[in-house]
């Protein structure tokens, strides 16, 4: 999985006044969990643009100005309900020998036979929960729809899993090809035409 670097400074004071002052200065108060003890630090709000405002998922390298470095993932984020301004972020420290669970996006590949025949592809799961060692976390889970006919569904059991596990029931539908309204209408009209008596034919 791709990683981005967040540079920050460790906080000595974690009270409300210090937190408010940090936000007023354009900084985001953060906490890193998963180590021997939580690490409190501030980082510039603009540093999170590539981490938060994207459909992609990344691991994070937290670099503090005191020389400490941590590998982590974003665990939780709090935003202002009106302005969407980032108020607080929690990170969780990664350890090379410990598996981690996180959600990664689904990437659709291939051209569905059902879609080419007039069907509509519906993506039921935009993200899937995976569990793996940090080094094996995928950027995305690939879903090949090539063999999907009209009315077919693609289940999680059909997805490739290389060095990671999908934490979903076997009957979880990732995507499916539905009959479009136009195709359904055409089929109904064809059925009616087939049942109607031929023109000029006596009953």
Provide key terms for this protein.
single chain; Ribosomal Protein L25, Chain P; RNA Polymerase Alpha Subunit, Chain A, domain 2; four-stranded mixed beta sheet
Could you walk me through the main structural features you see in this protein, from its secondary elements to its overall organization?
The chain has 203 residues and is an alpha+beta fold. 16% of the residues lie in helices and 41% in strands. The strands form 3 sheets. A 6-stranded mixed barrel has the order 1-3-2-6-5-4. Strand 4 and strand 5 (69-79) form a beta hairpin. The longest helix has 15 residues, at 181-195. It comes from Flavobacterium supellecticarium. One of its GO terms (cellular component) is cytosolic large ribosomal subunit. Part of the 50S ribosomal subunit; part of the 5S rRNA/L5/L18/L25 subcomplex. Contacts the 5S rRNA. Binds to the 5S rRNA independently of L5 and L18. Residues 6-91 form the Large ribosomal subunit protein bL25 L25 domain.
